What we know:
Layout: H1 18-25, H2 31-45, H3 57-66, H4 72-85, H5 89-97, H6 101-105, H7 111-124, H8 128-134, H9 138-147, H10 154-170, H11 172-177, H12 180-184, H13 193-206, H14 210-218, H15 222-229, H16 234-247, H17 251-259, H18 263-271, H19 277-297, H20 301-308, H21 311-320, H22 324-337
Helix pairs in contact: 1-2, 2-4, 4-7, 7-10, 10-13, 13-16, 15-16, 16-19, 18-19, 19-22, 21-22
Protein name: Radial spoke head 14 homolog
InterPro entries: ARM-like (IPR011989), ARM-type_fold (IPR016024), RSP14 (IPR042856)
Amino acid sequence: MSRDSDAPPAPVAFGRWAVPLLAEQLRLPGRDVRLRALAALIDVLRQPLRGPEALTEGFLQQLKVLLEDEDPCVRAKVCQLLHVLAAHTCGRQALLAASFLPPLSQLLEDPPCRRTVFLLLSRLSLHSSGRVSLLTLLPKLMKKLQEEEEEEEDEVQVLFLSLLRCCFQADPEAALRSDAVALLAPKLSNGALNICKAAAAAMMALSVPMGGKVEVCDQKVLPAVAALLQEEDEEAQLNATGVIMFAAVTTAGKLQCLHLNVLPVLLKLACDRHEDEDMRRRRKPLVMNSVRGLTMLAETPEGRRLLQDQLPLLRRTSEEEEDVDIQRVFETAIQVVTFTP
């Protein structure tokens, strides 16, 4: 038979016997038998409500054994099956309880499995205990960030950065102790926009604690973030405004942002009006970040002077805005701009 992983699925028994009988075939000798059984299991477990049928201790242990199979196609199919299981809340809980993270982490450098492993780990991070458990992988992930080769596929780099963001959100302080800001910074100026966006999202997570805000300024990250702010891409703008909003809490961040002339860009993003309701709803986080960034910059004499000239625009936009959350941040910004000591 062909050596690829696209062998036809094995025949599937009816009803509740489908998963147990296919699971038995995973124990049989013969690489092609296992591949066909895995393909059939993936098809069966994609059906609603079928996932819990596979969450027996014996079946999960068998899958863990197959993660170390000598055949790369078998390993890849097992990762696909685990990814399907992780679509269910009970599946994520079961995989975490069965300690799948260590064997999965060994496949981060396995080309046939790498992409699916990143997707799987991101699904596991949807569970609260999964985010905490992922922190055990942080040293390995940070080492990979340091050693990552530029020729890595863009999609894999984006998945990797998205996984890092999950870890940073769970414990940014631990990431900062691993020099995460300096290691992540080069990704902000990578030529591929998708990589830059993912790096900015991860940097935003690092910028939440005060130590991260200081590091972002000390490591001269903001010029690359300001450049990303100029992209005609809402996700890029959203992530960039998030970093700026957090960094501008510090005096150094305020001064760097003013020097980089981001204030007019933030003002435009905050005050642009759109008739389409869906677009307004989608842009809400971007508008909120932009107005909060303006509020931070208004705390400096230069920022306040620049924004005082724009008070009619700020007031008009606030009055025309229907969303109460956006109205509130505009009102706060106006109060800061009009404050007199």
